[in-house]
Amino acid sequence: MKIAVVSITKHGIALAGQVLAALPGAQLFCPEKFRADAETAAPGAFHCYTGKVGDQVPALFAAFDGIVCIVSLGAVVRLIAPHLKNKETDPAVVVIDEAGKFVIPMLSGHLGGANSLAGHLATALGATPVLTTASDARQTLAVDLLGRELGWTFEATHDEIVRCSAAVVNDEAVALVQESGSEDWWTHHANGRSGPLAANIQRFSRIEEIDPEHFAAVLWISQRALPAEFAARLAGKRVIYRPADRA
């Protein structure tokens, strides 16, 4: 990820130095009046601007995959609100308080990687990650992240992702059918899961083993085409995952 770190105060810039140390290649952006502090905190990796921080947001959104803000949460909400488009393209945005106690992913937590970035920074800073997405708070499966670390892709509409994600976090019956791909996806899933798979998720080895009417959502991991007799029965409530490997 290309990451920008934004800070607008003297003490925040000092903390930014620790953030950059944990994120090789990241760049610091701060007001011109703090140039000397930026040189100390991030030698060779800082950019100073004149004017308002809000004027920098469009360029940061266009050029970076992630933005770490050592700025108050409320201020960041106001700064980025006019520039939001959709969860598939918006950058990850993470907020850190100036004391370095809390790391808060506030935008694009899953697809954009803000939750993962927040977890990494919390570990590096000895801070507390504040994860508010339901799947992370409950340590259950994140439908839109399943297998991503293994190079899997998924086939689903936005509405199908929403419906299947809701089924998982609301304890509805979910069928997880794995016909191919590595089975070592749970402990490496999203930000890492150490507990058992949620009780509402039932595992199968073949799509033919399930009765679609018994499940609110079906997550199918396979290399083959969806059998015709299941296409209509699963419409609107399935996500198909395509593993990069054929194990």
What attributes does this structure have?
Rossmann fold, 12 strands, 2 domains, 5-stranded mixed β-sheet, 8 helices, elongated, single chain, 7-stranded mixed β-sheet, about 250 residues, alpha/beta
Structure description:
The chain has 247 residues and is of the alpha/beta class. Helices cover 28% and strands 22% of the residues. The protein is built from 8 helices and 12 strands. The strands form 2 sheets. It has a 7-stranded mixed β-sheet, covered by helices on one side. Strands 8-12-11-9-10 form a 5-stranded mixed β-sheet, with helices on one face. α5 links the parallel β6 and β7. The mean pLDDT is 92.
Largest sheet: 7 strands, mixed
The count of helical stretches stands at 8
- How big a fraction of the residues is strand? 15-25%
CATH architecture of the largest domain: 3-Layer(aba) Sandwich
Determine the CATH topology of the largest domain: Rossmann fold
Layout of helices and strands, plus pairs?
Layout (H helix, E strand, L loop, with lengths): L2 E5 L2 H13 L4 E5 L3 H7 L4 E4 L7 H7 L2 E5 L2 H8 L11 E5 L5 E6 L6 H12 L2 E2 L4 H4 L15 E3 L2 H12 L4 E5 L22 E4 L12 E5 L6 H7 L3 E5 L5
Helix pairs in contact: 1-2
Quick take:
The protein has 247 residues and is α/β, with parallel strands linked by helices. It has helices spanning 10-22, 35-41, 57-63, 73-80, 114-125, 134-137, 158-169, 228-234; strands at 3-7, 27-31, 46-49, 66-70, 92-96, 102-107, 128-129, 153-155, 174-178, 201-204, 217-221, 238-242.
